């Protein structure tokens, strides 16, 4: 929900759930970037960051989502709310759209 200055406010996960925020930074001139994921339950529980080589920013966003899922699996979190800022990635995770690499 937008704040008073158009800034999105962070909303905590429901009780018993873990929220994992993920994002990326991409440098097109060298086709590299970094992805990060942070697990939160009222406070930071764990985090992960990874340097990546990728062809474009869209791929980097999907790699950030993958890192978030791997973080949840590695920490045995079952009730997880994933949050990112890329509309296409979120829709793919929610099974609302077909991933861009799917040929079917």
Q: What secondary-structure arrangement, pairings included, does this model have?
A:
Blueprint: E1 18-27, E2 32-40, E3 44-53, H1 57-74, E4 80-83, H2 87-93
Parallel strand pairs: 1-4
Antiparallel strand pairs: 1-2, 2-3
Organism: Thalictrum thalictroides (Rue-anemone)
Domain RNase H type-1: 21-97
InterPro entries: RNase_H-like, RNase_H-like_dom_plant, RNaseH-like_sf, RNaseH_domain, RNaseH_sf
What does it look like?
The chain has one domain (18-93): Ribonuclease H-like superfamily/Ribonuclease H (Nucleotidyltransferase, domain 5). 24% of the residues lie in helices and 32% in strands. It contains two helices and four strands, in the order E-E-E-H-E-H. A four-stranded mixed beta sheet has the order 3-2-1-4, with helices on one face. A hairpin with a 3-residue loop joins strand 2 and strand 3 (44-53). The protein is globular. It starts with 17 loop residues before the first strand and ends in an 11-residue tail after the last helix. The model has no long low-confidence stretch (mean pLDDT 82).
